[in-house]
TrEMBL record:
The keyword GTP-binding applies. It comes from the Bacteria. Keywords: GTP-binding, Ligase, Magnesium, Manganese, Metal-binding, Nucleotide-binding, Potassium. The lineage of its organism: Bacteria, Bacillati, Actinomycetota, Actinomycetes, Micromonosporales. NCBIfam families: F420_cofE (TIGR01916), PRK13294.1 (NF009810). One of its GO terms (molecular function) is metal ion binding. Residues 13-210 form the Coenzyme F420:L-glutamate ligase-like domain. This is Coenzyme F420-0:L-glutamate ligase. The keyword Metal-binding applies. It comes from Couchioplanes caeruleus subsp. caeruleus.
Length: 337
């Protein structure tokens, strides 16, 4: 690739429900050519598709209506700090306020995300092809990032452009095989397009020219960029994860498996619980706790100690089941499955 050119598409004007985006874009940019990539702000896609809700213009009624809309667009809450809610939408996107937007729209409406951004991109690409130009399409929106300040545009939907550039299996100049490198190309192009669109310039579409292979074939869309639950290591905010851990600790099940417990993990759990020297360890699978104070108050403290130990074991990924007897408790420990 020798380089990219990023061009604003000016003169599209205000978009309303039912507008033909392909007609608006191709009329404003008659210079479009095969292989170009359209980076289209999701807001005009939503407006054309009628994805707006009416709300009061101001006051507490507006905030109440906005909260109701947010709840309807939310699959689950990821994190909440004061008035800011980071949620997972029904599409699977994790973003502030479910992507609901009150900017660049009259005060009596809120703009929702497109119902299916990938499908929106496919329709726009097909409509452009019907007008004689084969392009790739990216439907973009602005998101924050968990580890960095500032916002950037990303791809919510895409068509006619491969979402990834996969370097896995390639050899770098030092002879190392690349094993994890998949570049999210459509996110990179979405961010590049934002540089010429801006937020207040009423330029909702950019064209990226020079990216190889764009517009040539059907592609999977942006949905493949979404992590599934099994691979998501950051599915909750810090405070929410802490609260979930406390709830888990308060409701530990009695569980035993056939998988052996790791001896080092058991040792760490005993230390975490503050019970070094108080727990006998015949084996990593069997812990013996003895009640030294048999008064009612002492036995209550003993029960709390045992539960604290089981919580520490759970934090190490270990399952446990406890059996109490006249002199103490035996804790069966195993690897969780």
């Amino acid at each position: 690739m020798d380089g990219l050119e990023i061009l604003p598409v000016r003169g599209i004007g205000d978009v309303t429900a039912g507008d033909d985006l392909a007609e608006l874009i191709t009329r404003a940019a008659p210079w479009l050519r095969d292989g170009d990539v359209l980076v289209v702000t999701s807001k005009i896609v939503s407006k054309a598709e009628g994805r707006l809700v009416e709300v009061p213009a101001d006051g507490p009624e507006r905030e109440a209506a906005r909260a109701e809309v947010l709840a309807s667009e939310t699959r689950r809450v990821v994190a909440r700090r004061g008035p800011t809610a980071i949620v997972q939408t029904h599409h699977g996107f994790v973003m502030a306020a479910a992507g609901i937007d009150a900017s660049n729209v009259d005060k009596t409406h809120l703009v929702l995300l497109p119902e299916s951004p990938d499908e929106s991109a496919r329709r726009l690409r097909a409509a452009c092809a019907a007008r004689g130009v084969r392009v790739g399409v990216i439907v973009s929106d602005t998101m924050g990032r968990a580890w960095r300040n500032g916002l950037t545009d990303v791809a919510l939907g895409a068509a006619g452009i491969e979402p990834f550039r996969d370097h896995r299996g390639e050899i770098d100049p030092y002879g190392n095989e690349l094993q994890l490198t998949e570049m999210a190309v459509i996110d990179e192009l979405a961010a590049a397009g934002e540089l010429v669109k801006g937020k207040c310039d009423q330029v909702p579409v950019a064209v990226v020219r020079g990216y190889p292979g764009a517009g040539a074939a059907e592609t999977p869309g942006a949905v493949v960029l979404l992590r599934d639950a099994a691979s998501d290591m950051f599915s909750l905010g810090t405070a929410e994860a802490h609260a979930e851990g406390l709830r888990t600790a308060a409701t530990l099940p009695q569980t035993a498996t056939d998988a052996p417990a790791d001896a080092e993990a058991v040792r760490r759990a005993i230390t975490t619980a503050g019970l070094d020297g108080s727990v006998a360890v015949p084996s990593p699978q069997t812990l013996r706790c003895t009640a030294t104070d048999t008064t009612p108050a002492g036995l209550m403290r003993f029960g709390a100690d045992v539960h604290r130990l089981r919580s520490a074991l759970a934090a190490e990924g270990l399952a446990s089941a406890v059996a109490y007897d006249e002199t103490g408790a035996t804790v069966a420990v195993s690897a969780a499955q």
